[in-house]
Structures are given as C-alpha cells and as structure tokens.
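User: Sequence recovery, please. Input:
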C-alpha cells in the first residue's frame, strides 16, 4: 500500500480535518490543528506530506521518526500538531486495513468504558450552576470551568474572593454529588497561584489545571508541595521530551497531553506510559472535534492510568458546528451516565461525512481567540 495524497479541510467551528489517501482505496482521517492557527498547521501538514507520498502507511514508527527528526528542527505547537494529525490518520489507515479498532492493535481494552467531563461557564466563568444542572440532566457528573476572569500578576484579595465564591457556591448547591476541575487557563501567574490554591483548598476540586503557564512548569513542584489539590497540565506541552522534565521534577498529579498537539497516538501512548511509571494519571485534553476525541479514546482504552476524558459537546467554542456534526456514526459515540464506550468501527472509529466536511470547508471561519487586556491596557492572558 502506498500513500497517494493528503487533503486538508478547515471547518467551523475552528477545526481542521486531514484525509490521507492510499493506492488501495483505504483512507485515514486525522485532526491536526492549533486553535487559532489552522492555516499555519495546514502549511506544516503539507510540508511534512512531501515525506509521505509514495511511502507505505503501515510504517507509522519510521514515518513518525522521519517527520520528527528529518527536518533538524523539531517540537513546538505547530509542528507537533501537524505531526499529530498525520499520525492519527496513519493509525486510522492501519486499523481499517486490518479491520479492527486501533485499541485492538495496542493490546486491547484495559477498561470497559471511559469517564468523560464537560465544560461549563464559558470564557469568563458565569451561570455555572445552571450549566451544571443542564448537563446533570444528561447524566453527566464531572465538569470543568475557568477559575478566574482576567487576573493581574499581582491581584487583589477581592479578585481571589470572587473566584473562590463561585466555587463555594457550587459546593453549597451540589455538595459532593459532582466533581469538577478548575482551569486556571494560564491566567494565573506565580504570585497569585499560591493564594488562589490555598483559598480553593477547602472546596476540594478534582484538579486545578495549568496552575501557572506551561513555560513556568518549574513551579509545579513548589505549588504541589503547598496544596493537596491535584495539579494537572499538558495541553501546551508537545512531546515526551517536555513531559519527561515535568515528570522528573514532580508536582503534576495529572498529565493532559492533547492528541492533536502532542504528536498523535504514537507520542501520547509514550507519554501515558511515562506518566504511569511516576504514578501520574492521564486525562487527555480535547476541546476539539470527533477525530481528535476518537484518537484520545484509542489511547484511553489501552492506558491503565487514563482517568478522565475531556470532550467538547456543548463547549463554548463550538459555535457553528457541534462535536458530532461531521460524522455518519454519531450513535457510536455512546455517552451514558458520565462515561463513553469504546468506538466499535475499525481504525479510529469515526465514519467522517466527507461531503459535509468538503461543503463546510468552503466557508471555514478563521477562528481566533480573543485578545484580552487588563484595566491598565496591558495584555491579559486569555
Ligand atoms: O482545557 C481546555 O479545554 C483548554 O484550556 C481550552 O480552553 C484551550 O485549549 C482552547 O481550546 C484554546 O483555544
Ligand atoms: Mg485547559
């Protein structure tokens, strides 16, 4: 079998799909994207594609290493997202060619179903109680929300109290019948991370995500030493070489690699195994589309330390299209009681509605995240 063509489709809400065709009529799908930089990743995919045309898609390991190491420069959000989508598509081809789901090629199921969570509250945490009540009615009991609005490097006790009051309100309404992660989203700098974690401690969130920016990861250990709240991060780390340093220094209880940013299934499997060696849990990041989620699930269902899966149904970013709008097999994404079952189809388990994708790609928006500013006019982390 030989790779014949790579086609990319940028679509609403802010996703990109990659289709890799072969000379035997089997095609694989991937979801390479950096949210807000889709065109940049698209260019990177097609540059990497030069290495793939004419190659045997079965040789995922060799192709992965050739793409990762062959261009001298390596790593980073754009390149590793392009590589991730290609890797996903190659695994999709392999599973389809052999007639089995990817997880069967990786040793089979380690669990029968995977716990999922949903976002509530939007860009600036609001209406969280109502959001949770709506999702509870659908059987969900685990959620994630932004912890703060804009927060200055050194902010007021009032700003901390506002963040804490929202969480205290959740516990007063729902008690411990729900669990939730709090995403600091990189908005909290080192000076504010400690006071915020300390004040949140009594409400026992499931985890705090990105307690400081990924480039400040050397603080994870110090923050972990001062709080019992499990700390999570990973969506802005892009290879096992980045996660290696974070695992060695300690501090993170949960790793959140993104299957569409951290080199795909091949790389995230390695990251999952490294995390397990340190007794660190895995909760793949996935605010994206169906192929990205399917790739996460293939890793979740073979990784003992996979504990929680983000999925984007109802997320505030999905304006113009929802998680399962581009698939024929929405019914295969069986979410019930806060869990999702293994996808039954061969490959990644997604039956992409190609006509719908092509149609949507004709009017794809160039999504951008907002540029926030503090009261003094300086840039605020979004
Ligand atoms: O945890 C999450 O889902 C992420 O922090 C998410 O909000 C961002 O990755 C966003 O997609 C960036 O555009
Ligand atoms: Mg996050």
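Assistant: Recovered sequence (382 residues):
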């Amino acid at each position: 079998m030989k790779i014949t063509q790579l086609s990319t489709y940028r679509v609403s809400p802010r996703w990109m799909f990659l289709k890799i065709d072969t000379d035997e009529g089997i095609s694989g799908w991937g979801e390479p994207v950096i949210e807000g930089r889709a065109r940049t990743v698209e260019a990177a995919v097609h540059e990497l594609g030069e290495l793939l045309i004419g190659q045997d898609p079965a040789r995922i390991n060799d192709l992965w290493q050739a793409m990762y190491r062959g261009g001298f420069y390596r790593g980073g959000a754009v390149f590793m997202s392009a590589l991730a989508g290609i890797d996903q598509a190659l695994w999709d081809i392999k599973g389809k060619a052999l007639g089995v789901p990817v997880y069967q090629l990786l040793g089979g199921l380690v669990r029968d179903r995977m716990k999922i969570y949903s976002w509530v509250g939007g860009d600036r945490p609001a209406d969280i109680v109502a959001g949770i009540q709506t999702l509870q009615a659908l059987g969900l009991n685990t959620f994630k929300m932004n912890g703060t609005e804009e927060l200055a490097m050194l902010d007021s006790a009032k700003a901390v109290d506002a963040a804490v009051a929202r969480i205290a309100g959740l516990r007063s309404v729902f008690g411990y019948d729900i669990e939730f992660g709090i995403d600091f989203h990189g908005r909290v700098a080192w000076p504010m991370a400690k006071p915020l974690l300390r004040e949140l401690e009594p409400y026992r969130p499931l985890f705090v995500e990105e307690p400081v920016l990924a480039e400040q990861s050397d603080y994870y250990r110090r923050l972990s030493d001062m709080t019992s709240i499990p700390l999570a991060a990973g969506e802005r780390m892009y290879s096992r070489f980045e996660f290696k340093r974070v695992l060695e220094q300690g501090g993170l209880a949960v790793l959140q690699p993104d299957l569409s940013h951290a080199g795909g299934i091949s790389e995230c499997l390695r990251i999952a195994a490294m995390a397990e060696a340190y007794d660190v849990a895995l909760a793949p990041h996935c605010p994206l589309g169906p192929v990205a989620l399917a790739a996460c699930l293939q890793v979740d269902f073979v990784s003992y330390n996979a504990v929680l899966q983000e999925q984007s149904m109802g997320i505030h970013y999905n304006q113009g299209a929802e998680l399962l709008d581009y698939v024929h097999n929405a019914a295969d994404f069986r979410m019930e009681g806060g869990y999702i079952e293994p996808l039954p189809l061969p490959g990644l388990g997604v039956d992409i509605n190609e006509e719908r994708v092509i149609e949507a790609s004709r009017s794809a928006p160039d999504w951008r995240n907002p540029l926030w500013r503090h009261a003094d006019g300086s840039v605020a982390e979004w």
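The CA atoms of residues 61 and 258 lie 19 Å apart.
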